[in-house]
Structure formats: structure tokens, C-alpha cells
Amino acid sequence: MKKMNESLTSIKRLGLSAVAAGAILFAGGNAVSADEGSEFGEELLYEGKTSVHVEELNELLSERGLLEEGNDVYTADTAAAVTDFQKEYDLMVDGLAGVQTATALSELSHGDTGHLVEELQKDLNDLGLYNFDIDGIFGPITEEAVQELQGAYGLEQSGVATAKTVGILHEAVNAAPQAQENAADESAVAEAAEEEAAEEAAAEEAAAEEAAAEEAAAEEAAAEEAAAEEAAAEEAAAEEAAAEEAAAEEAAAEEAAAEEAAAEEAAAEEAAAEEAAAEEAAAEEAAAEEAAAEEAAAEEAAAEEAAAEEAAAEEAAAEEAAAEEAAAEEAAAEEAAAEEAAAEEAAAEEEAAQTEAASTSSSSGDAEGETLTVEATAYTANCTGCTGVTATGIDLNANPDQKVIAVDPSVIPLGSTVEVEGYGTAIAGDTGGAIQGNKVDLYMQSRGEALNFGRQTINVTVVDTP
């Protein structure tokens, strides 16, 4: 099977989350779609919504026995049926009919076309199963990609994007980033194990060298001692032979031999004393040399160990200091950026509030369904001086999972549902002093995410307006 890519699809293709619930609050009660010409699955359907797409949704749920009957109104029964369907096929369970739920209900097959086919092709492409044009046409190449996915997960390779197939596709797309993180953790553990093994091998090698040096010194001392003992034995044998010869001569001439024997005995005693002194001196010298060698080896080993410990301590101290300095710089940069953004936002809130009413009424009808190319930045509510409450009253600190963007109300009316490239479905629920014209500011949960986003050029599509 082809290697699956590890990139996530956009939140739009993963189904609607808690952000969509926010869209319902701002859209009001019995909302009516302003774009009946759109395809099924292109617009978010939720409780209170009335449209031809809701009618189509109710028919599909009724065909599956999840809803007795329905009309063009998204009722509480519709929401309950959608929830049951999502649970049954491992979809995102939120009771809202987004792209993912619409695709699973439609069971796309060869010959189908349109928006839902495009979304299916995008998910298959993200997993490396579809490497062709995202054209919204369910042809043989799309069918082959669906069959390959089904085969990989033990499903019948029908080529039809059944609800079960769409559920597995959703799980596979979400699982890819976790696999990459696990592989990175395993690599770090292996690297640490290799480093520890190298240090242990170096220590064993040093110990072996020290033991070899001590063994060589001991062997040398033993050899010197054996040589001294052999020389003493040979000398004793020679003395014994001389004594026997002297005794024979004494028998021939007792008087002369007696005098000579006395002289020889004195000489032998003197020689024995000198030899004993020489042996004792040699033994003392050998012992001194052995002790000196052992002391020198111990001092050298101690010096090497002390040097290694000192180098390791210096390296650890340098690494710790560098890490602390980098962390301090990063924290200071994040705090400064957050404070600057908060100041700009607070300064412009009053001006934005004054122009909001007029701009909203003039642009509401024109903006719906329009796709704008905008300059995007990011902000967070978790910063010094930030209240966390948007211009439309959304408490971001109490609802951190909300998807909210700040807009110029004269371009995108406040309260609109928008589809943001790389961010997903969100509510145009905030304003900002620097957000003028084709500029937006995306809400992020943390400072780090906001700073990492930086400044980008993206597309924003207005799905619904108030």
C-alpha cells in the first residue's frame, strides 16, 4: 500500500467542532439559508436551519431508518438522528451536519460529481492514496483510491465511499500526526541508549588498561625475585663443593689443613654475609620499584577521572545556561508581542464599535458567498491587558475551543459564518484597530501558536451572514 502522508486535513474536512455550535448562536433561531443554489454539504446544517439541503438531509436519515419523516426544517429529532449516525460510524459526534457527515450519508460512488467528491479526494490525497487533480469528479482513479483504503482496513473493496469507509478515512487522517510524534520519541530514546553505551565502553576500556599495567608490574617483580633465588642456590652449591675439597686436603696434611681450613672458613663466612646483604638490598629495591609503579598508576587514573568529571560538569553548566537564556528570550518576545497586540486591539475597539452598525447593514447582502484574499495575523486572549471578551460578547477564556476571527465589519459583517483557509469554519465575532479592509486576525489558544502563525495571505469565504 502507498505510504500515507502525515499532514492533517483542514478542520473543514474533519467535521464541525464546538466552533460550529458558536455559529448557531450567532445565526439565531430559525435560520434560513441565503444560498439555495449551493450543493449539499457546502453549508453547515444545524438545529433551527431551514433549507432544501436540510430536506435532503432528512430524506437520507429517513432512508437509513434514523428519522421517521422530515421536511426542510432541522429539528431536535434531526439533530438526534445525526448524532446517532455519527456515533455508529466513528465520525465526529456533534449533532451538526457538516462536510464529513454529509459525505458519509451520501455514499459517493463512480460517476458522482461536486463539492463532496472534492473533499473526499482531498482526504485521500492527504493519505497518499490519490495523486491526481482535485476536480470533484468520482472517476476510475478516485474509485481505485477508495478501494485501496478499503483493502488496507479489511473492508469490501467496492469502491463506494460508504459511511464505514468515511469513518475509517477520518480516523486515518487524524492518526497520522500521532504516529510521527511516536517515531520522534523512539528515535530520541535510541540515541540516548547509544550515548550511554559509548560512555560505558570507554569506562570499561580505561579499567582494563589499568589492570593490565598492574599485572605487568607484578610479573616483573616476580621475575626479579626468582632470578635472585636461583643465583643464591648456585653459589651455595659451589661453596659446598669447595668445603668437601678442603676436607680431603686436610686429611693429607692435618696441621696445614687445619690452618688453611680456618682461613677458608673465615672467608666463607664473610662471603655469605656479603651475599645475604646483597640479596636483602635487591629485594628491598624490587619492592620499592613495585610500590612506586602502583602509586604512579593510581595517581594517573585519579587525575584522568578528575579531568573527565570536571569537563562533564563544565559542559552541563554551559548547556543549562544556554537553555535558560533561550527560554528567557523567547518568553520576553512572546510577552512583548502579546502586550503590543492587546494595546492595538484596545485602542481600536471604540472606533470599530462606532462604525460596526453602518458597515454591517451595507455589506451584509453583498458579502455572503464571496471568497476574499486577505492578510491574516493571529492573536490570543491569554495575555496581559486582554479581557478575553470579543466585540460580539464571546468569552474566549471561558470557551477556549471557539473558532473566532476579528474582521473589518465593512468588509465581512460581524456574526457571519466564514470558512478560513488552514483554520476552518469560524465566526466573524471580533474587531481590532489594525484590522481594516482585507485584513483578519485569527484567535489562537496560546501565545506560542499566535507567534508561530506570523503573517500570511489566505482565502476567506463568507458562508452565512446574519
Description:
The structure is a single chain. Helix 5 packs parallel to helix 7 (163-252). With 466 residues, this protein is α/β, with parallel strands linked by helices. The protein starts with 17 loop residues before the first helix and ends with a strand. It has a six-stranded mixed barrel with strand order 1-5-2-4-3-6. The chain has helices spanning 18-27, 52-63, 76-88, 99-106, 115-126, 140-152, 163-252, 254-367, 447-453; strands at 371-380, 404-406, 417-420, 424-430, 439-444, 456-464. The longest helix has 114 residues, at 254-367. The protein folds into three domains: 18-178, Orthogonal Bundle (Muramoyl-pentapeptide Carboxypeptidase, domain 1); 196-298; 337-464, RlpA-like domain (Barwin-like endoglucanases, Beta Barrel).
Q: Measured on Cα atoms, how large is the radius of gyration?
A: 46 Å
* Level-1 CATH class name of the largest domain: Mainly Alpha
Span of the ends, CA to CA:
47 Å
Total domain units: 3
Features:
3D (Asp-Asp-Asp) domain-containing protein, 3 domains, 8% strand, hydrolase activity, hydrolyzing O-glycosyl compounds, signal, 6 strands, Barwin-like endoglucanases, alpha/beta, RlpA-like_sf, 6-stranded mixed beta barrel, 9 helices, Muramoyl-pentapeptide Carboxypeptidase, domain 1, 466 residues
Task: State the gist of this model.
The chain is an alpha/beta fold. Helices cover 60% and strands 8% of the residues. The chain has nine helices and six strands; from the N terminus they run ααααααααβββββαβ.
Write the layout of secondary structure elements.
Layout (H helix, E strand, L loop, with lengths): L17 H10 L24 H12 L12 H13 L10 H8 L8 H12 L13 H13 L10 H90 L1 H114 L3 E10 L23 E3 L10 E4 L3 E7 L8 E6 L2 H7 L2 E9 L2
Parallel strand pairs: 1-5, 2-4
Antiparallel strand pairs: 1-6, 2-5, 3-4, 3-6
